[in-house]
Amino acid sequence: MRKPLIAGNWKMFKDNDQALELVRELAPLVEALEDVEVAVCPPFTTLADVSRLIAELGAPIGLGAQDVYPEREGAFTGEISPPMLKALGVDYVIAGHSERREIIGERDEFVAAKVRAVLDAGMTPILCVGETLEEREAGKASAKVEGQLRVDMAVVEAGEIPGMVIAYEPIWAIGTGKTATADDAQEMNSFIRRWLAGAYGEDAASSVRVLYGGSVKPDNASELMAMEDIDGALVGGASLKAADFAAIAKFKA
Ligand code: PEP
């Protein structure tokens, strides 16, 4: 059985003190939740202290990073390596978030290198894929997602699939307040799982968690999280409020 995952992407919000405060608020709200994994992905600057606080509180909160550079070490000014994250107790690393693809110009080959590097360091990639509004309206949503999966996952072996998380995040739904309908999200998540089955076999495909992300809020999470192929959510804006984030997690608990 796939254990659902609700992961919060804090993006470029929260300084160190604010991040610690948010974890302190969140910990008691999620401590009794069973059958669901909760994780937060704070900014790099707060990871060390957030990691220590989670351990100190004994809180059932996983730790994720929002990005990584796909080299172990070297002359890469300003970048952070997978072993550096691993040493801080990081479990999950987001790779290929649409904000990095669209704003910073990251390409699929680079995303694939990140996926590989995260797996090599013993962490779980959360690989984000999704289409623009234009692509959806042109009927090209699944072709776009398939193209991303083909390149981004070319570096992954079948045996590594259970150690991956994939997040379907339609770009037009991120931070916009527009959410995919539960049926549309289910359809794409199921398409992703079928693609995985074709590429890696049924066992691998049925073991991987496929999340939905895009303006998930407490008031729309119930319908989305009830869908068969939606194994949780990658939550941006609503993860910055402990009560909202915990409320979303409860729909999978
Ligand atoms: C995200 O950043 O991955 C995301 C889904 O953001 P939001 O929930 O704010 O749309």
Structure overview:
The protein has 253 residues and is α/β, with parallel strands linked by helices. Helix content is 44%, strand content 15%. It is built from 11 helices and 8 strands. It has helices spanning 16-30, 47-57, 82-87, 98-104, 108-120, 133-137, 141-152, 182-200, 202-207, 218-225, 242-250, and strands at 5-9, 37-41, 61-65, 92-95, 124-129, 165-168, 209-213, 232-235. It has an 8-stranded parallel beta barrel, surrounded by 5 helices. Helix 2 links the parallel strand 2 and strand 3 (61-65). The longest helix has 19 residues, at 182-200. The two termini are 14 Å apart. Bound molecules: phosphoenolpyruvate. Phosphoenolpyruvate (PEP) is lined by residues 9, 11, 169, 174-175, 213-216, 234-238.
Radius of gyration: 17 Å
End-to-end separation in angstroms reads: 14 Å
Spatial order of strands in the largest sheet: 1-2-3-4-5-6-7-8
* Sequence stretches where pLDDT stays below 50 over 5 or more residues: none
Strand portion: 15-25%
- Main beta-sheet strand count, sense and barrel state: 8 strands, parallel, barrel
Mean pLDDT: 97
Discrete helix count: 11
Tally the beta strands: 8
Q: What string, H for helix and E for strand, traces the elements in order?
A: EHEHEHEHHEHHEHHEHEH
What hetero molecules are in the model?
phosphoenolpyruvate
The helix-and-strand class reads alpha/beta
Shape: globular
Helix content: 40-55%
